[in-house]
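Suppose a colleague, Dr. K., hands you the sequence of a protein chain of 360 amino acids and asks what its three-dimensional shape might be. Before reaching for any lab equipment, you can write down a predicted structure in token form. Begin with the sequence itself:
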Amino acid sequence: MSGAERERVVVAMSGGVDSSLAAALVVEGGAEAIGVTMHLAGANSRCCSLADADDARRVAERLGIRFYVANYRERFREEVMLPFADSYLAGRTPIPCVTCNTRFKFDYLLERARVFGAARVASGHYARVDVDPSTGLRRLRRAVDEAKDQTYFLFQLGQVQLRALEFPLGALTKAEVRDRARSLGLVTAEKPESQEICFVPDGDYAGVVESLRPDALPGAGDVVDGQGRVLGRHEGVHRFTVGQRRGLGLASTGRRYVTGLDAGRNRVIVGRASDLATETAWVSDVTWVAGSPPPAGTRARVRVRYRHEGAMATLVPGCDGATRVDFDEPVGSVAPGQAAVFDAGDVVLGGGWLRGEPSE
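The predicted structure, expressed as tokens, is then:
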């Protein structure tokens, strides 16, 4: 097949081993691969920095493919970093990786792919896409390597996007990815991976919020129990998240946890572990992978944070884009602002954003 006839695929190359091997597998499959690194969060980022772009470029040279760097730093600041800070200041626990993946690594990259004359985008995410034989719709499925599965961050992908995406690593384990990268002589084969949010490389979330929104900081406030009794003081609600136990600064004989955040009154609410148990959760702005909600009463396993194994629940979609989740058994540390992702077996049905009460 001539170069002009080959399918052209843009590969999102972050400079890590996963995206490097994804590019190699696209080439191995006979397509014309074009590597693109998105420069997002700046020099101190643990992902998509200029240093990572250099690693990606070296891999592209090894594979003999074209390579480009796309600068999206301003958009990333406006669409990911500032909303991240605003969420913490509002008493929520944000998960910016969802927006980053949906908007930048797919929506914007698909736009750039069209400029290159490519109809598809590949990435190193651990996820799978196939076709539901009964409906002909695309399905988003969990990766074979459960420990590396990244579908929690991809629930906003819809049919249009899934038809244009491929995840070459979905059927591989992390160990297999590194072995394949070594065998191909890729410079990133032994590169360690980051588990942190890319623009919070040292884990100091509060410091990032304070640097992004210095004029919006709430200042000191009260730490109270469930009855509103003042137990101590805090230095800002953005320093806390539901389920947190350490750093409360309380003199108490028993363990206390953050059970709620009242940003309006600048209060951190604490209680016992049992106070964190939730039987019902409300999920806003729900996206359904199939394009429409399933019937009320659909059963699903619901993940309320990235490393959560999921809990069985009944889904009750509403007419306002929200869904009520009735858990079979109480679930702890359900934090407003985090994502709730609905699975049926290894198929992702959809997901949305956890909120505190039905009226929020």
